[in-house]
TrEMBL record:
This is SDR family NAD(P)-dependent oxidoreductase. It comes from the Bacteria. GO terms for molecular function: oxidoreductase activity. The keyword Oxidoreductase applies. PANTHER family: DEHYDROGENASE/REDUCTASE SDR FAMILY MEMBER 7B, DEHYDROGENASE_REDUCTASE SDR FAMILY MEMBER 7B. It comes from Halostreptopolyspora alba.
Amino acid sequence: MALGTLDNLSGRAVIVTGASGAFGSGTLAMLHHLGANAIGIDRKPDDGVLGCDITDSAEVREVVPEAIDRLGGRLDRLIHFAGVGPAVDLGANPDTDVRETLDVNLLGAWRVTSAALPTLVRDRGRVVLVSSLLAGLPIPFAGAYVVSKRALTAYADSLRAEYGMSIGVTTVYPGYVDTPIHDRSRASGVALDGLVPAERERDTVMTVLRAAATNRPKRDVASTRLGQGALRFTRHFPWLVDSAVATRLKGIVRSGHFGDAEIARGFRERLSAPRHH
């Protein structure tokens, strides 16, 4: 898409969640460069970023109207980046990590959108939600993240069904991008590095900006051509995805990718045991 299309963002009133993170800060900077009237929301307040814990409904109901007020009482675009990605074992009882992941990645976006919706509907605005290719490509130990992102996709689809006559809703699906969201899985010894094709941070930022700028936004869009192919493949051929993931994981475990990570011990044992019938 030409830069001229991105110029459509000039003068637009935009809120970005997760605005102190890698994607959010880059997007906020580009929005300002393009002449948008943009403000961020994040747990970590910064210049042009309001402090807000999106897991706290009362705080969201207070901060979102404040953000809209600072934008002059308008809201043309709401962009959701806020997310976390701890490593979890799905065989364990859902703990604080699982609850946090769902609370931030799914319910956080839901809370903020709900608070902004009256203004978005009035201004015929658009919501851009950032999901993940992992929503359709399950990887061990990323289960909480995968579940949250697939649920976020379902939320976007439901929002479109109920409010699509008044607002636009686009879901963006990045692949693996090396950002601090992966620090917790690395600390657990089960990093995703090398498990899925890598993309650049810029790919996601520019895809989100294009989704926000275009006059004819797509329903679902990946950040790269390879990602777009993967998105279609995972949706239409899930059984082949299961087979490919299983084969890939066997090779990865044999190569020692997960090392001696305690969280992966049971998984390594199950892979070496006889298959079920």
